[in-house]
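Hi U.,

Before I forget, here's the chain from the pilot set. I'm dumping it here mostly so it's searchable later in email.
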Amino acid sequence: MGIVPGHAHPPAALRSARAAALALMALVLVLVGGTTVAHAVASGERVVGTLNNAGTPVEGVTISVERGGAEVATGQTNDAGRFEIDVPGPGDYTVVLDTGTLPDGVELRREGGERVEVTVRPGGSGAALFLLGENTNVASTRLDRAPQLLVGGIQFGLVLAMGSIGLSLIFGTTGLTNFAHGELITGGALLGYVVNVGFGVNLIPATIIAVLVGGAAGFALDRGLWRPLRRRGTGLIAMLVVSIGLAFVLRYLYLIYFGGSSRSYAQYATQSPVDVGPVGILPRDMVIMGVSVLVLVLVGLALQRTRFGKATRAVADNPSLAASSGIDVDRVISVVWVFGAALAVLGGVFLALSQQVGFQLGQNALLLLFAAVTLGGLGTAYGALAGALVIGVFTQLSTLFIAAELQVVGALIVLILVLIVRPQGILGSRERIG
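Structure:
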C-alpha cells in the first residue's frame, strides 16, 4: 500500500519530527550561547601553559616570550605550575623556558625543547607545551618506566573504548562509516568546558549535562539527517562522504566559536600523583578509569541481558530479518545513535582532562578509533573494547623504543600485522563468500 502524495504525516511521525527539531535547536542554542560565554572568559591575547613533572606542578620557572628576536613579555609559573603571559597582540611568538630556573632533577626531555613556537589569534591564547622529566637515559631504565606507561596505556585505551564502541555499534546497525564521530568527541569536550568554565558549574555535573545534550544531539542527527538518507536509499559510499562533509562543518564551527587555542577545565587540571607501588597515578586518572570500566560493563550487560540489547544485536546481524520478526529497526538505530553519541561525549571530556580542550581533539583521536574498531572486529562492541585497549597500551609502551611523536604510526603497524594474520579482527567472525 503506497503513500498518497500530499497525505498528512501520521501524528506519531509528526511528533517525532518535532522532537528531533527541538533537540537540534536546543543543541545549537547551547553551543552558540556557550561559546559566547567561553569567548568572554578567554578575552585578551596571551600565552598560556602548564609545567608539570610526572603530574607534579613545577613552580617558579621563568618563561619569556619573544617576537622577531626581541623579548616582549616574561612571567613565572605559579604554585599550580601554570603561566599566563599577556602579549601585545595576535601573531606568531616564540616562548622560551629558562632551563636555569628548573628544580634539581627536572630537565627537558629533548634537546632544543626550551623554545616553542605558538600562534595567538585575536582575542584568544596560544598554548605552549614543554615536555619535562628526569633524564631517562641516566635516572631510569626502560624496565622502570614500563609499569607507568602500562597504566597510562590502559587508561588511554579505556577512554578510546568510550568512543570506539559507539562508532562500532553505529556501523553494525547501519553500515555507516561515520567520519564525524570524532567531532562528537570534540563537541563533548567543548560543551563540558562551556558549562564548567563559562557558566561556573563544577566539572562533574557539567559532564552529566554534556552527556545528556550529546545524547539528544545523536538523536537529532539520526532523525534529521541519517534516517531521511536511509529512506531515500542513499548508498553507504555517499553517506560516508556526507559524514566527511559534516565533520568539516562541525570542526570549523568549533574553530570559529572557540578559537584555535587549547584550554583547561576549571577543576582537576593539576594534581599530585598518588604512589601505588612503582606507579604514580593522578586521582583524576583513577576516577577516569573507574568510571570508564563501570560504564563499559553496564553497556556490555545491556547488550547481553536486555531486550533492547538483543534487538540491537539482531539488527546488526540482519536488519531485514529483524524487521520481519517485529523489531522496529528505525527505533533501535535511533537509540543506538543516542547512546553512541553520549559515550563519545563522555570520552571527549575524559580525553580533554588528560590533555586539553581544543577544536582538533576528536580529529586527532579519530584514526585511533578506526584502528581500534577494525582491530577488534567491525561492528562488534566487545571487539571495539579489545581493540581500544590494545591500541592504548601499545601507543604508550612503544615510547620505550621510539619517539613519542611516532607512537600512532607504531599502533597502525600493529593493526596491519594483526589483520594480516586475522583479517576479521580479534573478536570478529569469518564471513563465507560464495
